[in-house]
């Protein structure tokens, strides 16, 4: 390819040759009819030139060109040469102040490489795209016409995009796109993983291990790993437009469940459910088969299990360490320890204080004085166990005493029990009987099952144990 300078030199050479021809063909005429002998060796630049002159003066050196007279006074010649070092250099524009070879005037931008081909020979510059990115609109299909339901893909030559028919069962990693009425792309389905999933429209199936703010989990093959970094707020938030509980100091009003650290710098999982109504969280366990075991291996549809760190693994909690606690806001109410003891915080044993002495509180009828007066009870759920022992001087033909709880109100229900009996200093050969009627807290003790009365004097002793259900 000729440079502009080479073209100029060719034109100058052609002009000089034409001038030489004209000089050679000058017609010498007689004086008065033609030019003078001196003028006959002069030339014109064009036929319109009115001032002929010698060739040397009719040539003017332009930019990058120099003229030299060779062999002055002899067989003279005019030498036309390119001057300086810019004979093969170019400018980017007319304002460019520093001409250079074309290789130095082209700069490679991002994703572009420039290579000189055939160095020191017939050189060419090769400009290449190194990123395989799309550079112009010709890289994409020219029209959406007749391309409905198709998707966009890269052609086999990896040079442009094209429309292709979407697969009904994409491979291990595939995104199915479609265009809306405005020509915008819409994600119809996404499949990632192996074996190749086959999602339906509107589905995303990922048989993968997904990381958020992390990239390593040696304890997971497939699953989700979330890393909050140094943050201590919600790591998972579940929301619904139907919910507006208003507990916005704790979370956003449409968040109905959340997961977060229990203690910011120590960890532990806090699961919180929020509601506009009465139930904030519920744990349901559904089992196909039930378990009737009542030993240390017993299981159930819902299991709450506690561990304690042991080296790099886990083990049992120590004696008296709490396994489970029920807390009202910040106040503990209920606890079960590793020994199986169940405690109501503030009142001791869940089943109340073991074997509480009630003798000083009970209203007792039948004695004027006592050698021994004992009434003890223990409540387990709705069952109350009672043990009594009275020994003293009789002053009545009846015996009654009160209890701290009223029996359940079941029609005609009556709790009876045998009792040791000593009447007026004589131990009876047969048992007495104690009776507690329904919806009552008064025990009546008889000498026998016929209701025989007591002697209102002398030594009187009764001893018994029984249980009943409270209301």
Question: Would you kindly provide a written description of the structure presented here, covering whatever features stand out?
Answer:
With about 475 residues, the chain is mainly beta. The chain folds into five domains: about 5-80, no CATH class; about 135-205, no CATH class; about 210-275, no CATH class; about 310-350, no CATH class; about 355-470, Immunoglobulin-like (Sandwich). It is about 5% helix and about 35% strand. It contains three helices and 30 strands. The protein has helices spanning about 5-25, 55-60, 100-105, and strands at about 65-70, 75-80, 110-115, 125-130, 150-155, 160-165, 175-180, 185-195, 205, 210, 225, 235-240, 255-265, 265-275, 310, 315, 320-330, 330-335, 340-345, 350, 355, 365, 365-380, 385-395, 400, 415-425, 425, 430-435, 440-445, 460-470. The strands form nine sheets. Strands 21, 22, 23, 24, 25, 26, 27, 28, 29 and 30 form a ten-stranded antiparallel sheet that branches. Strands 17-18-19-20 form a four-stranded antiparallel sheet, with no helix packed on it.
């Amino acid at each position: 390819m000729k440079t502009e300078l080479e073209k100029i030199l060719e034109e100058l050479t052609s002009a000089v040759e034409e001038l030489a021809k004209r000089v050679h063909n000058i017609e010498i005429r007689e004086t008065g009819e033609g030019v003078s002998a001196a003028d006959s060796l002069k030339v014109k630049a064009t036929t319109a030139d009115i001032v002929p002159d010698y060739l040397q003066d009719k040539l003017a050196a332009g930019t990058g060109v120099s003229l030299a007279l060779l062999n002055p006074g002899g067989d003279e010649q005019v030498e036309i040469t390119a001057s300086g070092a810019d004979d093969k250099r170019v400018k980017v524009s007319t304002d460019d102040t520093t001409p250079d070879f074309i290789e130095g005037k082209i700069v490679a931008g991002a994703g572009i490489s420039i290579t000189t081909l055939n160095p020191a020979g017939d050189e060419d510059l090769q400009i290449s795209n190194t990123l395989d990115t799309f550079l112009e609109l010709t890289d994409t299909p020219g029209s959406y016409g007749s391309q409905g339901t198709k998707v966009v893909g890269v052609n086999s030559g990896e040079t442009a995009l094209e429309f292709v028919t979407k697969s009904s069962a994409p491979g291990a990693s595939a995104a199915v796109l479609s265009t809306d009425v405005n020509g915008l792309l819409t994600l119809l389905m996404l499949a990632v993983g192996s074996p190749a999933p086959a999602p339906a429209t509107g589905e995303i199936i990922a048989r993968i291990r997904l990381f958020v703010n992390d990239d390593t989990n040696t304890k997971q093959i497939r699953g989700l790993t979330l890393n909050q970094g140094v943050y201590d707020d919600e790591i998972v938030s579940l929301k619904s437009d139907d919910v507006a509980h208003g507990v916005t100091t704790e979370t956003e009003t449409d968040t109905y469940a959340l997961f977060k650290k229990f203690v910011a710098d120590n960890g532990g999982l806090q699961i919180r459910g929020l509601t506009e109504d009465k139930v904030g969280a519920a744990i349901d366990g559904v089992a196909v088969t039930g378990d009737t075991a009542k030993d240390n291996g017993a299981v159930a549809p819902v299991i709450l299990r506690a561990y304690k760190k042991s080296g790099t693994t886990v083990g049992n909690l120590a004696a008296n360490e709490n396994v489970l606690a029920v807390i009202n806001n910040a106040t503990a109410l209920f606890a079960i320890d590793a020994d199986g003891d169940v405690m109501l915080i503030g009142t001791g044993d869940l089943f109340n204080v073991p074997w509480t002495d009630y003798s000083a509180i009970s209203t007792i009828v039948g004695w004027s004085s006592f050698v021994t007066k004992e009434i003890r009870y223990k409540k387990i759920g709705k069952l109350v166990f009672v043990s009594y022992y009275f020994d003293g001087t009789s002053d009545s033909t009846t015996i009654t005493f009160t209890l701290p709880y009223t029996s359940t109100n079941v029609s005609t229900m009556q709790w009876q029990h045998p009792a040791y009996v000593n009447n007026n200093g004589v131990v009876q050969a047969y048992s007495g009987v104690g009776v507690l009627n329904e919806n009552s807290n008064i025990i009546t003790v008889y000498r026998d099952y016929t209701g025989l009365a007591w002697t209102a004097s002398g030594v009187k002793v009764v001893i018994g144990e029984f249980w009943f259900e409270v209301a």
